[in-house]
Every structure is written in structure tokens, then in C-alpha cells.
Design a protein that fits this description.
With 124 residues, the protein is of the alpha+beta class. The chain is 19% helix and 18% strand. The protein has helices at 47-65, 111-115; strands at 4-5, 20-21, 28-29, 33-34, 80-84, 96-100, 106-109. The chain has a 3-stranded antiparallel sheet with strand order 5-6-7. A two-stranded antiparallel sheet has the order 1-4. The longest helix has 19 residues, at 47-65. The structure holds zinc ion (ZN). Zinc ion binds at residues 6, 8, 11, 32, 44-46, 49. Zinc ion (ZN) binds next to loops.
């Protein structure tokens, strides 16, 4: 599997043992490389490196992909979330339900519907 480099602009400046590479007399701290990383969609070796990138490039990235200049709206029509009543004395048929975060309306659902991540009352 191909190795990829951490995209953190200062990754090589974190002086950990695993970053110290090269032969004796010719050692340098180097950007980490792995087959996979956990952070930032697999682009960063740590939250530090992720944050370093964001600090340096966020403004440019947002300007490139489109900066919000007005609020987005989550309408009542799309404000349904799944919820679960943990009380053991609740009738099974009312244990799982949708609640609308704007109107506060509740609608019961089955456990299967609750567990189905594609099942929603919101606009697909
Ligand atoms: Zn890194």
C-alpha cells in the first residue's frame, strides 16, 4: 500500500522519536508518513497537524469553496430527529419516536425504523 504524507505544515517540527529519520550524521525530523491516518479524512497524523493546517489554510479554502455570507435555515419540515425513551416502564410501541425540534411534535416509530439510518421524515 502506498505511503502518504501527513499534510500538517508543521508536522516535521514536532520533534518526536518516530519523526527522526536518516542515517547517523544526516538525521532530520521529517513529516510523518503512513498508509493511513485517522484525522481530517485521512490527511493528518494528529489533531495538532489538522489544526495547524486549518490555522494556516482555512481562510483560503473557504474563499475557494464558497464563504457563507448569510445564515442557512433548517426549516420545521426538516427538523425531525430520532429519539429514544430510556425509561423501562414505557410501552414498547412508544419507546422510539421522532421529535420535531421546532414544533416539538412527536411521532412514534418502530425499533426497526429507529435503527434504519435511511429512515427519516426529513427531505431525502
Ligand atoms: Zn502530522
Amino acid at each position: 500500500m502506498a505511503l502518504k504524507f501527513c499534510q500538517g505544515p508543521a508536522c516535521h517540527q514536532y520533534t518526536t522519536k518516530d519523526r527522526l529519520r536518516g542515517t547517523k550524521g544526516n538525521k532530520t525530523f521529517q513529516t510523518r508518513r503512513r498508509t493511513s491516518f485517522y484525522y481530517g479524512k485521512g490527511n493528518f497524523c494528529s489533531m495538532n497537524c489538522y489544526n495547524d493546517w486549518a490555522e494556516k489554510f482555512s481562510d483560503r479554502a473557504i474563499d475557494h469553496f464558497g464563504r457563507l455570507t448569510e445564515p442557512k435555515h433548517l426549516t420545521e419540515q426538516d427538523a425531525w430527529v430520532k429519539d429514544y425513551d430510556w425509561r423501562s416502564n414505557v410501552d414498547d410501541s412508544h419507546r422510539y419516536y421522532f421529535v420535531n425540534k421546532i414544533s416539538k411534535e412527536q411521532r412514534p416509530m418502530t425499533e426497526e425504523q429507529y435503527r434504519d439510518s435511511n429512515y427519516t421524515l426529513n427531505t431525502p
